[in-house]
Write a structure and sequence with these properties.
The complex is a heterodimer. Chain A is of the alpha/beta class. Chain A has helices at 23-33, 69-76, 109-119, 124-138, 153-165, 183-198, 210-216, 234-243, and strands at 2-13, 43-54, 58-62, 84-89, 93-96, 171-175, 202-206, 219-224, 227-232. In chain A, helix 3 crosses helix 4 (124-138), helix 3 (109-119) crosses helix 5 and helix 4 (124-138) packs across helix 5. The longest helix of chain A has 16 residues, at 183-198. The model of chain A has no long low-confidence stretch (mean pLDDT 83). Chain B is mainly α. Classes of the chains: A alpha/beta, B mainly alpha. The interface between A and B is medium-sized, with 30 and 24 residues.
């Protein structure tokens, strides 16, 4: 069974000097350039990427910053539309991209859990049922009703992480999230990922840490400047990544 | 048959969104209000205190200084300006809603229509919270309200849909062109003077007076006046027409936004 099928996906960003966000810059550019058309400069964030992930497999994604990893994840999770190509998904997908992006500092931890959980697609019932479990996992029992702005950055990400890991889906996308919290918490998080693996979930795993990739992934892909350079063995992908 | 299905889908989807995500929209709107007043001593009470203080200032200004002779003028003014404020702040806040919730749009698979509707609902809550003050003034000015009060829920629903539908457009434009929010601010301000909120429609030249019945927003405000000030029932067929219009424009606004939202992520 194939859970994720990415075929010939390309994403083009028109990052030219032609994108004005204000009348003033548009006007100034118009004066300078006159009526000639400005050259359109296109940047390929992804170029003809194809691969597939089978059910229950953990696929590692490695590549330098700006290689197109986040764009790829956004396209797979359906947040972004590809310029060309197709993505086929079987089952409920659940992206953990920027954790805690929806947190509001003035609200309490508990309120943020509810909002974040809803945004991540959990139902009202689910959240309230899992509330205690989430707080327990985040180790924030004493401060959960304080505003999040009073939290340390470690507490903040622990909370975000706990909400994220309480979601149940068939396909899980993990974007660089195992570097959260102290040693003990990292150990707990690893345990969660292993739990997912045991439950035969399909996982897309992005990380800059070769250690984590080795630990969790069955296969890996290596991205360079938007193109898929290698697909297959974890060690070989890591070698390509580390040699750059 | 397929054509029919497409059409039903076209009509149903904008409302399906409201039903499917009602709890999230409700919680987020509540969050907006909480954040607005978080840290202040009076909290939610400000939603009532603000209009109360305004009301006192305006009463003093219009009645004592300008000697406005119209009967219970402050009540007239306030029954109109409260819903107007709801409308105006909804539009202005919604305009920058997509750009300011980039985190939501970029990282969540939920429809981004939600962030626009949340702004309208949050300001709607604000309006509801200011109603007790209005009732207090009705009492002070010895104005009685009759059965026409039953029109109020319908009028509020109409306003919700009209505000949402209009909000969808500038919210979309603002993603591509950030000047939109400042342009909208000025347009909204101008619109305030075009609509009879401060003045009576009878003060308009007779040929302009009919415009009130053509402009849905003006008629909507007139409905509020009817209910709270004149104590007459708004004309039923016109309210029905207004409800129909509000639903149609809501569907149109929804699909305009929906059609453009695929590329939002590229611009945030």
């Amino acid at each position: 069974m194939i859970d994720i099928e990415v075929s010939n996906v390309s994403k083009v960003f028109k990052r030219s000097n032609e994108r004005y966000f204000s009348m003033k810059s548009a006007f100034v550019a118009f004066i300078k350039r006159g009526l000639r058309k400005a050259p359109k400069q296109t940047v390929y964030a992804l170029k003809d990427v194809s691969f597939e992930v089978k059910t229950g497999m953990t696929m590692g994604v490695v590549g330098k910053n700006g290689a197109g990893k986040s764009t790829l994840l956004r396209i797979i999770s359906g947040i972004m539309k590809p310029t060309s190509g197709r993505v086929k998904i079987k089952g409920k997908i659940y992206p953990l991209l920027e954790l805690g992006a929806g947190f509001h500092p003035e609200l309490t931890g508990r309120e943020n859990v509810v909002i974040n959980g809803l945004i991540m697609g959990m139902s009202k019932k689910e959240i309230y049922k899992k509330m205690d479990e989430i707080i327990e996992f985040a180790e924030l029992k004493d401060v959960i009703d304080e505003p999040v702005r009073t939290y340390s950055s470690g507490m903040y990400s622990r909370l975000a992480f706990s909400v994220a890991f309480s979601v149940d889906a068939d396909i899980i996308i993990l974007d660089e999230i195992l570097s959260t919290g102290d040693m003990a918490f990292q150990q707990k998080s690893r345990q969660k990922v292993l739990d997912y693996k045991r439950k035969n979930k399909t996982i897309l795993f992005v990380s800059h840490s070769p250690k984590s990739i080795r630990e969790f992934c069955d296969e890996a892909i290596y991205l360079e400047k938007g193109t898929l350079k290698y697909k297959g063995d974890v060690e070989k992908a890591l070698k390509l990544y580390e040699s750059k | 048959m397929i054509k029919y299905n497409c059409f039903m889908n076209f009509l149903i989807k904008p409302f399906e969104l409201l039903i499917k995500y009602y709890y999230l929209i409700y919680i987020l709107a509540l969050k907006e209000l909480k954040i607005r007043y978080r840290g202040s001593v009076f909290g939610f009470l400000w939603s009532m205190l603000n209009p109360l203080l305004n009301l006192i200032i305006y009463t003093f200004l219009f009645v004592v200084i300008f000697k406005n002779t119209a009967k219970a003028y402050p009540v007239y003014f306030f029954s109109g300006i409260l819903p107007w404020n709801w409308f105006a702040s909804s539009i202005m806040e919604a305009t920058s809603s997509v750009t300011s919730s980039a985190g939501f749009v970029k990282n969540s698979t939920l429809p981004s229509e939600i962030v626009v509707i949340v702004k309208v609902l949050a300001n709607g809550f604000n309006y509801l919270l200011s109603l007790p003050i209005l009732f207090l003034f009705l009492f002070l000015f010895h104005i009685s309200i009759g059965l026409s009060i039953f029109y109020l829920p319908i009028i509020i629903i109409i306003e919700f849909f009209i505000a949402s539908s209009i909000a969808f457009f500038p919210a979309t434009w603002n993603v591509f062109f950030r000047d939109t929010q400042y342009i909208i601010q000025n347009i909204v301000q101008l619109a305030f003077f075009v609509i009879p909120v401060m003045y009576f429609d009878t003060q308009l030249p007779p040929n302009l007076r009919k415009l009130v019945y053509i402009d849905p927003l003006a008629y909507l405000i007139k409905c509020y006046h009817d209910v709270f000030y004149s104590n007459i029932a708004p004309r039923f067929e016109l309210v029905l027409a207004l409800l129909l219009i509000s639903i149609i424009v809501y569907v149109l606004g929804f699909w305009y936004f929906n059609h453009k939202k695929d590329v939002f992520v590229d611009y945030l």
